[in-house]
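Quick question, first post here. What does this chain look like in 3D?
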Amino acid sequence: MATAAVEIPPSNHGIPGSHMLGHVTLPKPPSKPSEAPNPDQVFATWLKRFNDMIGGQKTKVDELFLPDSYWRDLLCSTWDFHTYSGIPTISSVLKPSGDPCCLRKLGVDASSDHKKPIVCPIDSKGNLQGVRAFLTVETDVGRGRGLVKLTRDAEDGEWKVFTLFTTLQELKGYEETVNTRRPSGVDHGAHPGRLNWQERRNVEANCENSYEPTVLIIGTGGT
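> Answer (accepted):
Ran it through. Tokens below.
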């Protein structure tokens, strides 16, 4: 008897290194209505406790993360992309390990008004309220950005992480020369033999005058 071929949807293909997550379990809403939270205060309290924890204090991960919580990390905890879920997995990542790419500090992203902590719904129907805040991230080797969504734990009423996102954006000592870091191109005063901006760029491009380029090659593993 002939067997018909069954096509597997691309989203379900097994890719080496990938991890299929199950259906997300939304947190249970508190049994009793609570007062409207102050987002700045809620976030500041959680942030201090989180930084204390990764700094070696005795705060436990389950005091800051919900049992069904998720942390999507791009290069801040290790030199790879990961989605961590659940207290045991997240606890194992946040333990001091001596890894050179280790999360060191989270901060408030105050770069614009729309990134300030706000009260927002966690679910699509708006039945579960939470606090959303944008983050600055610092590791041993670089800096980045992030986003966290906090909601009340139905068991103890504490504000804890439902979802956390962190991503590394630059390496310390090798920051991209943009905005205030851009070279001015102006060199006032008497400097015999000085080069203008275009001439200096040509020297770098042609590796002249003993100039040695610094090259960082980032690959995705594709062919």
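The beta strands are 65-74, 81-85, 103-108, 118-121, 129-139, 142-152, 159-171.
Helices lie at 39-54, 87-94, 197-206.
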